[in-house]
Each structure stands twice: as structure tokens, then as C-alpha cells.
Write a structure and sequence with these properties.
Shape: globular
Helix content: 40-55%
Distance between the termini: 13 Å
Strand order of the largest sheet: 1-9-10-11-7-6-3-4-5
Radius of gyration: 24 Å
Structural class: alpha+beta
Number of strands: 11
């Protein structure tokens, strides 16, 4: 049991440390925001050249920097009521097929005598048409002891195996949607949109990345990005709370004489400095499109010329919180589909009250609760008893299941 009095006393004992940290962080955030704001009036080519983006492997702005005359593209729309906003959103989504997939997992760990786990991935496809019905699908997969412990994967923990398999299945579900929507132009359809509830980029600083489980993440994402470009179906990697430092790294490359900071992008985009409003101030405002490259990205995230395959935009989806990060394949920007895709994301967030409705619905279908976990263990126990398998649940786990 957690005792509130003990927590309060422990926090009060460290109050000065929190105050000092907060003051220093505000100074760093405001300075980074000033430098990002100062990119207005410059060209993308200048910024890329002066930052040494190619050699330093830092992200750089797209040509939207010149067109927007700064790093922010205001949304501009203002509604007098939520109902008015919903009407706008429903018109944007009308006849547009949207999709999302999300997953959850169960891993009993040492509570079970034999290692076993399960992954469940749910998908939600909505045609937004009177004559069409939305589709929900659930895929459930048991991960066996051999999958968790077998082979030459001594570097993997069972938890990593479960997480990687869940990630692969989520990416596979999105890829299947991309294939189904192939040819949407020829059929005269509106631009479809797939949500991936995660980043589209996988960074790894390990030198043995080609022989570790991390290759599975990179491979799943590379296939997703490749298929999106091939089918011309946009996909958005939606990160609600992003701690990515790509803009900060670019600013540090432009100001090499300045000390490194711990600021992340979403913070500096919402910083209030000397009377200036935040860079992303109003709902629906977004940053320009940025080409994303990092030193830790695998080569599969770059094309044959060495150009990044994925970019990103920060979008203000709430009135007062930090912006969400949207990872978007570069081809979407190059094809002139970016604004339509972002309007579709905004519309999904209106319907979902601040979070894309498609992702929210997929999450509700995928989630496995504590009770589901207990039910899974009981089913496994019954299965083992029926087939005379040596499987037992620890007394501690059984006790927890009775008490909670």
C-alpha cells in the first residue's frame, strides 16, 4: 500500500532540487524556442548546409520553411461550438477509409512453471460511408516456450520476444490494409489513411543490430514504409507523448558552440518566452514538414540516394497540452498529399475528443485487463490438465487472483 503522507514528506525533502531543475529547464527550453523561431526567413537549403545535416545525420526542414516563412503552419479555422467542429470533421472524413491497429500482451513470467505468453492485435477500419460498415478484427496468438527460449537467441529476454512479436503483428495488420486500399486513385476514392500507434522510426546504437532482435523492429517498419510508398496509401505513425529530440539536435548542430541540453521537441514547441506565445499556440496548428535522419537509424530508413524515407510534423491536438508527433513517409509530402492527410488526422482527433478515434477504438478492442490475464492462465491450466502437460501456476499468483 502507498501511504500519501510518506510520499508528500519525501517530495518536500527534495523540493529545492525540483525547483532548481525546473528553473534551469525553462531557460533551456526558451533558448531553444528562440533559435527555432529564428529560422524564419531562411531557406531549407541554407539550414541543411550550415547544420552539416548530411554528415552529422540530423534532421532538416523541408521546402515548407520558405513557403510558411517560418517553422509553423497555422490551422486558421475557428469554430463557435464543438458541434460546428464535428460537422467540419465529418465532412473531411466522409467517404474516406481510415484504419488503425493496436495490440496488447500477456506474459505471466515466473508465475507459470512453463514460459508462455500471448499477444492480441485488434484493427478498426471505418469507411465513413452510409452504405459501408466499419470492420473490427482481432488476432490472438499464443507464444510457445520454444519461441520464448529456443534457438540461438540467447541475447533476447522473453519479454523482448513478446514485445517484438506484438510490434510485428501490429505492423502486419497495417500492411494488409495498405494492400486492400491499393488502387484507390483508379477507383476515384478519397485519400485513405492508416494510423500506426507508434513511431515509424527505430533507432538502435548497438553495433550488433543486424544480429539482435532489434532488426525485427527495423524490418517491420521498413516493409511498412516501402508498402505505403508502393501502394500510395498514406500511413501516419502517431505518438501522443513524444520525447524525440530531432529539432533540438538540429539546433545544436547549427549552434555548435552552445552546451548540449536535455530539451525535447514537444517542450520547446510549447514554450512561452518573453511575451511570445508558444510556437504551436492554437488547436490544429502544426510545424512544417521535417526530413528525419539520425545517426542511429538503420540504412533501410534511407533511399538509394541516401535521402530519408520518413519525415515528421508536430500537430497541436489539444488546447493546452504538448503537441503530438506524426511520423509520415516523405513520399506523402512529395506527392502533395500532406495537407489532406493532416486534415484527416485533425478530424479523427475532433471525433475522438483529442485523440484519433480510429486508434482509440482499436485500443479498446485490443486491451487485455488483469481479469483477462487471470482467465488466460486458467485456460492454459485447463489445457495442460487435459493433455497431461506439466504446467502449474504459482500459489502466489493464485492468491493474487483471489484477492484482487
Amino acid at each position: 500500500m502507498l501511504y500519501r503522507t510518506h510520499v508528500v514528506n519525501a517530495l518536500e525533502a527534495r523540493r529545492e532540487e525540483f525547483v532548481t531543475f525546473g528553473r534551469a529547464l525553462r531557460e533551456e527550453v526558451c533558448e531553444a524556442a528562440r533559435r527555432l523561431r529564428a529560422l524564419a526567413g531562411r531557406t531549407a537549403a541554407e539550414v541543411r548546409r550550415e547544420s552539416g545535416a548530411v554528415a552529422a545525420r540530423v534532421s532538416f526542414p523541408s521546402d515548407e520553411l520558405e513557403r510558411a516563412r517560418g517553422v509553423v503552419v497555422p490551422f486558421g479555422a475557428a469554430w463557435r461550438s464543438h458541434e460546428e467542429g464535428r460537422r467540419w470533421a465529418l465532412e473531411v472524413l466522409r467517404g474516406r477509409v481510415t484504419f488503425a491497429a493496436d495490440g496488447s500482451q500477456v506474459f505471466p513470467g515466473r508465475e507459470a512453471s512453463v514460459p508462455v505468453a500471448a499477444v492480441q492485435v485488434a484493427s478498426f477500419e471505418n469507411p465513413h460511408a452510409p452504405e459501408g460498415r466499419y470492420l473490427k478484427d482481432v488476432h490472438f496468438e499464443v507464444i510457445t516456450p520454444d519461441q520464448l527460449l529456443g534457438g540461438e537467441r540467447s541475447y533476447e529476454s522473453p519479454e523482448q520476444v513478446v514485445g517484438a512479436r506484438r510490434f510485428e503483428l501490429e505492423a502486419k495488420a497495417v500492411c494488409q490494409f495498405l494492400e486492400r486500399r491499393r488502387g484507390w486513385r483508379a477507383r476515384g476514392e478519397r485519400v485513405p489513411l492508416a494510423f500506426f500507434d507508434n513511431t515509424l522510426l527505430f533507432s538502435s546504437r548497438r553495433k550488433d543490430a543486424e544480429v539482435t532482435f532489434s532488426k525485427r523492429y527495423a524490418s517491420a517498419l521498413s516493409e511498412l514504409i516501402r508498402l505505403s510508398r508502393e501502394t500510395e496509401v498514406p500511413v501516419v505513425g502517431y505518438v501522443d507523448q513524444s520525447y524525440a529530440p530531432d529539432l533540438r539536435d538540429l539546433l545544436e548542430a547549427l549552434h555548435a558552440d552552445s552546451p548540449r541540453t536535455s530539451v525535447y521537441d514537444a517542450q520547446l514547441l510549447r514554450a512561452r518566452d518573453e511575451g511570445h506565445p508558444p510556437l504551436l499556440d492554437a488547436w490544429g496548428d502544426r510545424t512544417i514538414f521535417w526530413h528525419c535522419q539520425r545517426a542511429s537509424l538503420a540504412e533501410s530508413f534511407f533511399d538509394e540516394r541516401g535521402a530519408p524515407l520518413v519525415g515528421f510534423v508536430y500537430l497541436q491536438t489539444t488546447a493546452d497540452g504538448n503537441p503530438s508527433r506524426l511520423d509520415i513517409p516523405v513520399w506523402v509530402h512529395e506527392a502533395g498529399l500532406l495537407e489532406e492527410v493532416l486534415d484527416a488526422v485533425r478530424a479523427e482527433c475532433v471525433v475522438g475528443n483529442g485523440y484519433p478515434y480510429a486508434i482509440e477504438t482499436a485500443d479498446e478492442a485490443a486491451v487485455m485487463t488483469t481479469r483477462d490475464r487471470e482467465h488466460f492462465l486458467r485456460v492454459i491450466q485447463d489445457f495442460a490438465d487435459q493433455h497431461r502437460l506439466d504446467f502449474r501456476i504459482s500459489r502466489k499468483a493464485a492468491s493474487k487472483g483471489r484477492r484482487r
